[in-house]
## 1
Amino acid sequence: MKSIADIKAIRDKMQSEIILRDNSDSEAETRVVVGMATCGISAGARPVYNTLLDEVATRGLKNVKVTRSGCLGMCKLEPIVEVFVPGQEKVTYVEVNPEKAKQIIASHVVNGNVCQDYLIKE
Amino acid sequence: MRELALNILDIVENSVKAEAKNVLISVVAEDNLLTIVIKDDGKGMDEEFLKNVTDPFTTTRTTRKVGMGIPLFKMAAEMAGGEFSITSTKGVGTTVTATFVLDHIDRVPLGDLAETMVTLLNDDFPTDYLLKVSVDGNEYEFDTKELREQLDGVPVNEPEILLFVKDMINENITHIGGAKI
Ligand SMILES: Nc1ncnc2c1ncn2[C@@H]1O[C@H](COP(=O)(O)OP(=O)(O)O)[C@@H](O)[C@H]1O
Ligand SMILES: [Mg+2]
């Protein structure tokens, strides 16, 4: 059974990685923000958030932070994911599901190609 | 909502917004009754506001006129033969309590508490959580203060750490029989 004490091994590894990251003049971090108000949660924002975390962890992406915010103001289009790449305009994805979340990490966050199909339709 | 763990996430988000430093999430299953308590030390509500808070048109939000989080949780409890209550003291905190008849046909499953906890754990929000799960007297506790202590300055947001925490909570809840609730 895992316990909090087992976190030590991961922590030690992280501590050295974080020192490396701080020392390299790495570019600012990309932020991936999921709307997590009632509307988002009931539309499936939690599995989307967790899929994003899984993808960032398994790909070992270092300058990417997954976080959450309140209502993003378009309840009908939830789950909503906003991607902030430093130096670029914010990109808003709507009606995101875990499959789309994986794609957003793979093409936008990793390769810099915005997923046009998941943007708000005019 | 499809899982009570989603209602819990939503109700705890209220506590985070109310600038709570500590939130207790207690889930107790015993004698065919499930009791969920969410207790925070956030800014609380005054009596007048509290009276209306279970009504879907009460909210302090600006983006939307209706607050649905509390009414949805209340509905889930009442639908399953249980009861709902909310108490609050301005400047002290708020406690939300919901009970559910475990074998009621309309009782929503507890769902993935581990995912809910991992979604809440975020250094952008300095709230600490104490999760207590008890199933027929078998208990599991997860304390984020203890986690932060062990992490010794490493941000809790690191995805690798969150994945570990998710597995840990899942394993422990399954071990005490919580997966079948
Ligand atoms: N734990 C809490 N502490 C302080 N105020 C709260 C708390 N929970 C709810 N509230 C107040 O009640 C309102 C309604 O909550 P809710 O039903 O979840 O809808 P919403 O969060 O969308 O406004 C909130 O906007 C907030 O003003
Ligand atoms: Mg709410």
Note: Chain B touches chain A through 45 residues (CB under 8 Å).
## 2
Amino acid sequence: MRKITKFRAAKLTVAVTALLALAGGFVGISAAAASQPQAKPNTEVTGETYVIGTDTTFAPFEYRKDGELTGIDMDLIRDIAKNQGFTVEIKSLGFDAALQALQSNQVDGVIAGMSITDERGLIFDFSDPYFDSGVQMAVAEDNTKISGYADLAGENVVAKRGSEGETFANSIKDEYGFTVKALADSATMYDDVKAGNSVAVFDDYPVLAYGINQNNGLKSVTEKEQGSSYGFAVNKGQNPELLAAFNTGLAELKTSGEYQDILDTYLEQPAPAASSGFFGLLSDSLPALMKGLGLTLLATALSIVIALVLGVLFGFFKVSESRVLRGIASVYVSIFRGTPLLVQAFFFYFGLPQLTGQSIDVLTAGVLTLSLNAGAYMTEIVRGGIQSVDPGQTEAGRSLGLGYVTTMRRVVLPQAVKIMTPSFINQFVMTLKDTSLLAVIGFAELTYQGQQIYAANFRTGETLLIVAALYFIVINLLTMLSNKLDKRFNK
Amino acid sequence: MSKISVSKISVRGLRKSFGSNEVLKGLDVEIIEGEVVCVIGPSGSGKSTFLRCLNKLDELSAGTVIVDGFNLSDKTVDLNEVRQHIGMVFQHFNLFPHMTVLQNIMLAPVELKKESTADARASALKLLDRVGLADKATARPAQLSGGQKQRVAIARSLAVNPDIMLFDEATSALDPEMVGEVLQVIRDLAAEGMTMVVVTHEMGFAREVADRVIFMADGVIVEEGTPAELFGNPQQPRTQDFLSKVL
Ligand SMILES: Nc1ncnc2c1ncn2[C@@H]1O[C@H](COP(=O)(O)OP(=O)(O)OP(=O)(O)O)[C@@H](O)[C@H]1O
Ligand SMILES: [Mg+2]
């Protein structure tokens, strides 16, 4: 019996290690697109490296193909950088997050299919327009009832939050009598229409056209409205040389015809939609997902170790005789248990740099968030564990002449740890799952990678199934391993 | 840390309150070396609290307790040092469940660096033999009967060589057939001249081993005397009333 258990535990260990190694192997964070100075370099930007924020999910302007960021915006900024002799490091953050990152100087510029508006002009400086967009309406492929705005009376439509499409839909909703719902990215909006929650979507025509060409299950039913223009943005008053270089580079690409080539690549000859079946999707997406899983596990491991230290420290504060220490621990716990993890993540990544003027990388911000959050729960686990040991045990230890520390170490803690272990394992799993929330600040973990994939191929359901399965397998393997270790050491 | 008293234990004006509830209302007790004092009285009268003040498991609210010449209220006195002079045995044994019987007994001598591990093991085995449990050295507390647990607990407190032993209803949690084996160990200790304070509900035992019996009620000492005086001819109505109920 014992032998079998041991053998099983060993097999489990091997499986987990293999998985970690596999995931770890894919953690090679793709970095700067290095480039050589070419014709007419702008001397002010030559040799500089600029961090450029962008959306995660705005095909054909930015999306991932085989794990690499591609699209009109990406080709444009890289070619302009090459032309002007500077280097760019692209950060795929999501639209809202990219704008916040620009405001807090986490990035130097943003190119994200962003319309130039007066409102945005107040906080950002825009380049010359590089693309003229316009809003178009689409419905589900099999919908024969809706062929124009007049058919929308009493219906729900969906548009991208903060986009031209939303502004346009809102401007005509009273005239035609429909309701507008806002969602964060295109893939989600299209799913909403296909699921029948909304009858139509208002989106930028190039995005819509690209999606329809990818067999996203929609069809466009109206002509494109006269729309705004897209521009590259820097923070107000910051990086004027970068803006100037962008404008010069854009003009040169237009003259040379390279600009038109880029547009043609994505708009005139859309990639033929090759639907590859579930296993095709699985093998295509696995490299990116494993890379994400590696970061998920890295963030979890770092966070749980720091949380354990915090939990033990503040847990002891909580059971100490000192009112001050107990107070400190209570304040810490109530702050981190009393606010949502999502808010904490935004605060550490965007808020803190604005307050301190010190930028922070996304892994640090993510680990800071998770460890402080899990540390609060660990504190309560440690406090509960210590307090659940019969006070008679401490009295027996102290009456023998043992000091507080010795009594804790030899008598109370060994019993408390045994009581706490299941809660520790539980917290470990919670923290692993919580890493998925870090997708919102652009941390490239598993969920984020999944979002990237379905943003480009519109196969939301299948992609999420694969993502969920990966979480499920890893969490269950780790839980089984933890329980085995618990049984082995906490007899 | 000078020797102040010739008494082994000297209690003067001891008061103890829990919040606004005064549990001990001014106790004066002198106990000399080798004396066996039994404390009896109704539930809630403060017997346990009194005992716990003698090794400062509870803080004193007022008064002084001097044990072996150490004034417990003196901030410079090392309590951990004093407590090694005072063994304490609890109603619910409080054995350490994650250790074997031997480890329970060896913990304090080894941690306090009084003995090497090898010496502590030898002494522990001797103590186990003395309480009649030499064959249980490697057992866990959970595998022992109540009477065996309490005998291990006594051996554990004896391991640091105390010269005073405190017993708080050491037999109250035991099945009747096990009371005798524990009382026998206490009786042996008395015969060896150990100074002891024994809180007990076993009146027969108190009458047999005690040099002096103290009757407590409502946080005061109502009456004290030799077993013959207190059991044979109680003076106070409260003592008479209590004895008529328990005898
Ligand atoms: N830690 C405590 N906090 C508050 N009140 C307490 C505490 N310990 C004891 N008391 C109170 O002090 C009083 C005396 O308690 P104590 O345990 O000393 O009585 P006792 O004579 O030992 O009773 P018993 O025979 O039931 O053991 C009781 O009213 C009890 O409720
Ligand atoms: Mg009591």
Note: The radius of gyration of chain A is 27 Å.
